[in-house]
Amino acid sequence: MKLLNKTLTYISVSIVIIVTIWSAVLYWALLDEIYDSIDDGLANYKLLILHEAQNNPGILNKHDFAESNYSIYQVDASFAITVNDRFSDTLMYMQYENDLEPVRMLTTAFEQDGHYYLLRVIASMVEEDDLIENLFWFVLGLFAILILSFVLINAYWHQKLWQPFYHLLDKLKVIQLDQYEPLPVMDTDVKEFTDLHQALQYLVSNLQASYRLQKQFTENAAHELQTPIAIISSKVELLLEQESIGPEQAAIMTSIYGLLQRMSKLNRSLLTLSRIENQQFRDNKKLSVTQLTGEILDRFREWISQRSLKIIPVLEKDVRLQLDESLALMMIQNLILNAIKYAPQGSEIRVELSRQHLIIENRAEHGALDAQVVFERFYKGKHHQGSTGLGLAIVKAITDLYGFRLSYEYMDGDRHRFSVYFRR
């Protein structure tokens, strides 16, 4: 989740809780104030009625609300002393509306000239109910406007304040260690951002320097090793051509020559692996993996025939990927070479290619490989001691470089399966 979205989520939830509580408190406070105002009006009306009853005793016989907002009934003294001023909400039939309407009622009792009376005073709540409903929607609308305003304002200022950071982040994503490019200056007065820029500039400079030194050391070491190996190999070849050496010396020289060739191959493989990991192969282009796989199989046709192997190619037409051609060649070739080299004589090798994956299967002569370490450098199976142990490590480095997924499975107890999934 992006920082902006995460920040907005946390703050919005907090604001929603706070504003919800505030809105509820405000709503009930205003509602209470409305009821207090109505109740005060009813209490004042009661006093006016009591005063009028002193001057006009005839109203003491008014038993209904037909023409006014009060009614008076004579009651026993024992009942009257139990009645306290009580406010309540109720529905009452209004003749002029021909319907039940909500009213606020004050019920009380009083004494006059030795007689006791029950007084009920009402006030219509129709307008007040409309006011309460309008108040509810007003508070709800205000709540929504506050939340929306906060989100929009926060998003605007967040984008504006963090723009230098995102610009720096975009630059870091495409920076090349072999090309010295200083990080862009951050146009900001935020101290944390300027401190981050300085720290990253120092880190990138050190990484670029380390990269150049490592690259130089690797190339020099490979060159310095390859030259004496080539010289020694040529001298051993000359010695082998001499007729004066005996069979024992020839056997020793042959062994030395084989070790030198293996050392030369190992040196080249390590240099290739280092170049891949340092991302020195950058000639990416859209190439036909189908055509390349077919060419590799044709190249090894004679060796395949010598080992009486049967290739089962299942190649989807015109599979194209954005790859460096030399790396694509190494990846496919190393997997096919591995299968040809270790498949039992006369067995089958299945090569399957689609837009989703490349799968190579061959018979397993000596059981499963260790899936945990099979792609590590210098890993060799128990019966594969003649190899350099770098072929699959190179394949792993290439797949990691392009974001592919490489896997090994031991199938049905008799087959090795190496799979490259082009989409993770």
Could you give a short description of this structure?
Helix content is 55%, strand content 19%. By secondary structure, it is an alpha+beta fold. The chain has three domains: 3-142, Beta-Lactamase (2-Layer Sandwich), CATH 3.30.450; 191-277, Helix Hairpins; 284-421, Histidine kinase-like ATPase, C-terminal domain (Heat Shock Protein 90, 2-Layer Sandwich), CATH 3.30.565.10.
Describe the structure.
This protein has helices at 3-55, 77-80, 126-173, 191-241, 247-277, 289-299, 301-306, 325-342, 391-402; strands at residues 70-75, 86-94, 99-112, 115-124, 284-288, 310-315, 320-324, 348-353, 357-363, 405-411, 415-421. The protein is an alpha+beta fold. It folds into 3 domains: 3-142, Beta-Lactamase (2-Layer Sandwich), CATH 3.30.450; 191-277, Helix Hairpins; 284-421, Heat Shock Protein 90 (2-Layer Sandwich), CATH 3.30.565.10. Strand 2 (86-94) and strand 3 (99-112) form a beta hairpin. Helix 1 (3-55) runs antiparallel to helix 3. The radius of gyration is 46 Å and the shape is elongated. The protein starts with a helix and ends with a strand. The model has no long low-confidence stretch (mean pLDDT 82).
Q: What is the strand arrangement across the widest sheet?
A: 6-8-9-11-10
Taking all Cα atoms into account, the compactness measure Rg is 46 Å
**Domains counted in the coordinates: how many?**
3
- Counting DSSP H or I runs of 4 or more residues, the number of helices is 9
* Sequence stretches where pLDDT stays below 50 over 5 or more residues: none
> Which structural class fits the helix and strand makeup?
alpha+beta
